[in-house]
């Protein structure tokens, strides 16, 4: 025991994480449009491969709800055989970024963009899974999912099967919401497991006409990508999806690591090594044709709160997932799909920071606007384009705030008019600068003092030179320009 002083705590925590991870692994796989066992494979790799590596000692990896929408779209567009190629390429890119020590730079990504990304994913996830709650097929685009919901819900009330499915799903969400209010002894069973367990029991006892998980068997579900599938890498759309997978999975994992670090006082995350670990895990998942992985805050928080002290807990949780997948795969066939949809609706709702957005709007309206625009863009267009729009907005906002410019005009009534510019003169502030200069009297000489500028970009320099020429052409003395020495 001296060699493993925390084995007791880590063993207990690993069981809790396993019980939290099991329904989530299956739910994410089903929602992604792939065999349920592939979710378990990603969870196993997250424990046994990523879990053994250095980076963030208490963070737990597996298939994430945040990638569900992107994976579903990729499988629909490129087919299941291409999924392995996508995930393998994502892993290789993450390994390269970790080796080049780029992990720390993910901390520079605007928090509003990441929260907006997660909120957009959450909204699309909720909209899509509400269709699964009533046992019907969801439309393809995010806007169509939201627009079609009222009609789908009205139609559901005319079908016995849809009502049964809705009851199971709504009951699952109700259990998840109310679980934290129950006594501590009851809450030793993780909420997701209790919700799925009760839904499964209700469906069996009442013989409800609801769809259940299809079981293919662990070995039957694993499909390593064929050589033909690698030919898809010539597809520009596939390459764009790989970049989206890489950026989103990496950002989610490293932001999760920062959040987990705040939950415990143990060793801090080594970001570049964590990115290497995530890359290695995704490379293995890709080679097995499984789902992509990220660090998952729900499992990671459960791990810390259950008393985990070392990475042994997350490795052991992978062992328990492997034993379950190998010995009890047929248990999955009893799980109602609307129950898994309920879990993902609940998970999606947690991704939408409603309370945080209200306080953010009061304190930093620009950041709140970036969050909302990113989320809406993801729903209206797509994941990749939505994130790019959010990043572009964040860069423009930062550039705007960095372009502080102050202009002071001194006019003594006689002699030259003096104009002093200080701060950062960039193209973003050019209209303001030119408006002030063009308002100066045309029949008076001007002295333009630029010595107080810290930065003068090319666009501003050219515009100021053109203005000086125009002012001098009006028949007054040439504009005298003073620059910093």
Bin the strand percentage.
Answer: 5-15%
Alpha carbon gap, first and last residue: 70 Å
Poorly predicted regions are none
Strands side by side in the biggest sheet? 3-4-5-6
Reported for the largest beta sheet, the result is: 4 strands, mixed
Radius of gyration using CA atoms only: 28 Å
The average pLDDT score comes to 85
Task: Please tell me what the overall shape is.
Answer: elongated
Element pattern in H and E:
HHEHHHHHHHHHHEHHHHHHEEHEHE
Give the class from helix and strand content and strand pairing.
alpha/beta
Number of helices: 20
Helix content: 55-70%
Number of strands: 6
Give the key terms.
single chain; 485 residues; alpha/beta; 4-stranded mixed β-sheet; two-stranded antiparallel ribbon; 20 helices; 6 strands
What is the strand and helix layout of this fold?
Elements: H1 7-31, H2 36-48, E1 61-62, H3 68-78, H4 80-99, H5 111-133, H6 142-156, H7 160-178, H8 191-205, H9 218-221, H10 227-230, H11 236-261, H12 271-287, E2 294-295, H13 297-305, H14 312-327, H15 337-351, H16 354-363, H17 365-380, H18 383-402, E3 405-410, E4 417-425, H19 430-438, E5 446-456, H20 458-473, E6 480-482
Parallel strand pairs: 4-5, 5-6
Antiparallel strand pairs: 1-2, 3-4
